[in-house]
Every structure is written in C-alpha cells, then in structure tokens.
Amino acid sequence: MTYLHRVVPLLIASSGPLFAQGPFLLADIQPGSLESSPQELTVFRDRVWFSANDGQNGRELWVSDGTAAGTQMFVDLWPGSPGANPTGFCVLGDRMFFAAYGAGAGIELWVTDGTAVGTHQFADLRPGSASSYPSHLARIGDEIYFSADTGGGQEPWVTDGTVTGTRSLGDLRPGANGSTPMHFAGYPGNVVFQATDGVTGYELFHTDGTAAGTGLLLAINPGSSSWPEEMFAFDGRVFFFATDALHGRELWRTDFTAAGTVMVQDLAPGAYWSNPSNLVGGWRDQNFLFVAYQPGHGTDVFACDGTTLSYAWPPGINMPSAMTTTSPQDLRMIGSRKLYFDGSTPGHGHQLHVVDMTRPNPFGLYVYDLNPSGYSDPQEFVALRDLVLFTARDAAGRELWVMPNGATEEPADRGCSGSRLDVQDPVLGQDIYYYITTDVPNAAPMTMIGWPAQTPFVLPWVSACPVHVDPGLTAFVQYPAGWNSGTQTVPNDIALQGLELVMQCFVGSTTTPSLFDFTNAVHLYLGL
Questions:
Q1: Cβ distance 134 to 124 under 8 Å?
Q2: Contact at 8 Å (CB) between 176 and 139?
Q3: pTM for the predicted model, two decimal places
C-alpha cells in the first residue's frame, strides 16, 4: 500500500512518513503474538509519552514523535526485566511527573524535563524501600493533586512542582486504611475528589489546597457510597457521575458547596439507571460529552452545555441503519469537528469509529475494522499535531496505532486571566470561525496569526502567560473595540496540507489601559 503525508513544522518543508488517510499500525513494540500494551498516552514537548513492555526491558517509559523511527524507549528507569512500570503521567509547565519504581526506593514520584539527564526521582515520600504509591495525578492550575501512602494508607497530597512545596492535605481517615482519594478536579482553591473518612462511605470531598480546608463536602448517598467519579471541570463547576438511593447512577454537578451539589437530570427515571460514563470535553468548549442509557433509545452519546442535555449527534450515534453502533466508549474529541470512539458494529465487534460533525448522518460516520479476525478495542486517543495516536489490538496484540486527522485545531496553555480563544479546524478552501471570550471591559482584541515560536516566551508585563507566536513571522490583525469574533479564509491549496500556524490574541481595554490579557494559543494544522 502507498501512503502519503507531509509535515511542515515552522513552515520549512520536509518529507514525512508515507501513509494513506486510514489508520495503520505505527509500531509493533513487542513483535510476534505477544503485545507491548502501550498505556497512558500523554502529549508532552511535542511527542507522545507512554509506558510499554518490549518483552526485554519490562514496562518502561517510551516516546513517539508520530513516526515508526521516532517511537522508542526513552530511558530504562530500572534496568532488567521487571521494569519501572511508570504510571500517572501529568504535565506541569515544562516538566512531566509520574510514579515509577526505583531500586531501593520503591514506587515514588518521578519527573522528567524531556531529556534523559533531566529524568529522575522527584521525591521519596516514604523513605527507604517501602513505596508511597503516588496515583491519580491531576493538574489543577499550577499544582498537581494526587494520592500517596506515607504509612497510614492513601491520603490526599499536592505539589507545586518543588520538593518543599509538596505537602499532605491531611489524614482524612486515621489508621492504616487511608481515605483512598481519587478523581481530583476543579480550579485553584476549589478542588473536589472522591474519598472516604471511614464513616460516610465513598463520597464527595473538597479542599482549598490546605489541610485545614480539606474535608467532606456532601454525602450524596447517606448510609452507603455514591462513588463520585470522572470529575470534569467546566464553566466554573465540576460535573461528575454519582449514585443515590432515589435515582441510581446519573450526572451530577457541584459549585463547591453542599447546597450547590445537585443532579443535572434523571435520564432514566424510576427503576432504570442511565449509568453514564466516558465524560469528555466537547466542541469549542461549549459543551461536554458522555455516554448514557435512556429507556426506549438505548446507549448513546449525549452533550451537555452545563444545564441542558441533548443527543450529541441527532438522532444519536445509534441509528437504525446498517451503520448502527452500540456501546460507544473511550470518547475523544479531536479538533473542533471529529469524535473518535470505540464502538460495536454488527459483524465486526468493537472497532474504531470516527464521526465528522460537519457532515450529515450517515455519511459523517466512519467505521474502520482494524482487526478482521476479532475486535480491535481502540483506546487512549491523543492528538499530536495533525495525527491521532491510539492503542488497538490486531493479530500482533495491543500495540501503537496512528491515523491522520486532517485539519486540526489544538489549544495550548490558557489565558493569563482567563481570556479564551476558540477556533474551528482550518479546512483548506473554507473560512474558519473564531471567538474570543474575556473579562476585560471594552476589549479591543488584536489577533496574531503566524509561525509557531520554537520556544514559547513571556513578556515582562504579562509574565504569567506564554506567547506561542513567532514575533518575527507574525501577521497582526487589529479589530475595533467590541469585536470578539470573526473569520479567516484558508486557501484552497493542497500544497499547504499539514502546514502549522498559531493563532493567539492580545486583549486590551480601551477605557482602562492597565487592563490587558493574552488568550490561550491555538495551533492550526491545515488540511482536509
């Protein structure tokens, strides 16, 4: 088969690997019938990091730049066949934290800056050969919340990326068992998570980042456990799934108060449970998606704007046609228009499904049978430039796969004070729409479109927010006060396919000159 692809980083033409528009096996890390089982794919420093077992070194830290030649073991953290078993990859600034085994130190917190010499144990929270087992790492603002055991069971911890700034958030369940915290989500100063104090069961807890400010928020299912999980911060609140005695398992939300912790909607009233799962961010951050069951309709993909629920793809992914899919799982929005997921199609089992939300059903639904002899069960979709990397199973077992996504927008960082830029996928020959939200009064945004900066930099007067656009190769577009949206035309030139540009907006106030902000940057990969 002939494949074709061009990647042009920094607008300098270069030839990349050749491939067609369908998915293909990127690397058979453990050749033969045994599988390397790549896990926890995470984008960091323009590469995808994961753990894998090549059959010789055990489970170790691997990295891929999206090519077969650039997929390799990064460093052998614990030489020998057992492997260091790195888990919990979490990016904080220009470093990535994770848990791994080190000889003589057990399983502790590690860190890497993307170089071999800069990869080392970060902190030995439980000195000696015993392990603290750091887990459930979650970045919230400029800190990472996680669970660790220093001798009294798993309890909540937080780090700002320094050893001195790594601290316990209290012993919520005194004794040897621990409170078992997990599913951290929220905003700086307002974080919720699942835990138990040994009295209330597994319920919703809250922390302001201090031990004194950490405790039970609400027992949603008194006398038992509500098992709140898949926490997702959205529109100033956190949405999650929980179970109570009256409604079963449904979608809930919290504004970090007990009174403001409520069920969003009972999708399956009465004896039924909607049993929701797979909560992920949706298109242009204006909604999020999840999978749930509704009596009379079956299991489908739903969208929520924070208040109202609707089918994500009317009349739903589960269409009464030959393309009918069931049990959608492992959802992931890539760019502004494509939804990737693992779905079951009659006669094929669980295979790769891609929905292009710009096309009407059924033509916007594509099914790829990656394993004709069985199910491929694709998982862990991540965007790397205009590629989608994921794991899937075929005759070689579970290995690393890749698929070109075409036109892709990928946000980077966040605004200094919360200003946000949303952009559609830059499709060749079409206008792309962008929208700016900001709290700056009487805003006059200046849009920058240009080459990506080789290294993001900061300006002295906005040091909290990195600039991602190369200042020497930038087109500035000034808009009058009040303009917070617009369109940009993408030339209909196939030679531009794979081209990377960056859009970012400076927002100033026309009435208060001291008020200004930068939005997040959005990397644009031109394509079809």
A1: no
A2: no
A3: 0.90
